[in-house]
Amino acid sequence: MAVAGTTAVAGLADSATESNGLAAFDPRLTTDVLGVRSTPLTDLARALTFIGDVPVLCVLVVVAAYLFWRRTGSYRAPGLLLAAMAGSAVLTTGLKSLVGRHRPGIAYVLGPVDTGYAFPSGHTLNSAVFFGTVAALVLGGLQSRRARVSVVLGAALISLGIGLSRLYLGYHWATDVLAGWLVAMTWLIIVGTVAYLTRPVPEPGEDLIR
Questions:
Q1: 10 near 16, Cβ under 8 Å?
Q2: Exposure pattern of 143-158 as b/e (b: 16+ CB <10 Å)?
Q3: pLDDT per residue as tens digits for the range 142-191
Q4: Which of 130, 138, 179 is nearest to 156 (CA)?
Q5: Residues 143 and 205 sit within 8 Å (Cβ to Cβ)
Q6: What is the set of domains in the chain, with CATH numbers?
Q7: Model-level pTM greater than 0.85?
Q8: How far apart are CA 191 and CA 82, in angstroms?
């Protein structure tokens, strides 16, 4: 899955650079978004994109890491979260600089203009990694199937919503957002695999996220 995700991201990056493939549909999709905008949707999109802002995510990471430490008395879960987010930040910065894709024009933007590169969407990538990692760590301490499903669905929905908010507000092309999800998925698989291979052997009844 990690190899497939990496291959897909590379294909999207090439498509974005050459403005062909899936990227050829980006201008039409961005224009179509203008037709569905409304005050309630705009308010929702701004709230979701606020959650994915770097300062907000930094606060959420610190709070979540502290809560995991308080619950488990171990630095493993906080360490995994911080490592996942550090890698996410590096991937975001590196890929943006490597691809160098410009954002949609200011006529599409609802809010302050962002002059940074577009591919991949940092809000999408970083928020998906954060909520995905938190969900995975929380799942280890849950026994109820309903609770586990709720956590997974909650993380997926908010990650989906933040990505779509970036397209709705005109800050990114659709392929930027798709690439953000794919990079996040690939990175989460890598982090999860490393975490699994380096996991301590739990004592009977011990919390699995330690």
A1: no
A2: eeeeeeeebeeebeeb
A3: 778 888 899 999 999 999 999 999 999 999 999 999 999 999 999 999 99
A4: 130
A5: no
A6: 2-18+39-197 (1.20.144)
A7: yes
A8: 11
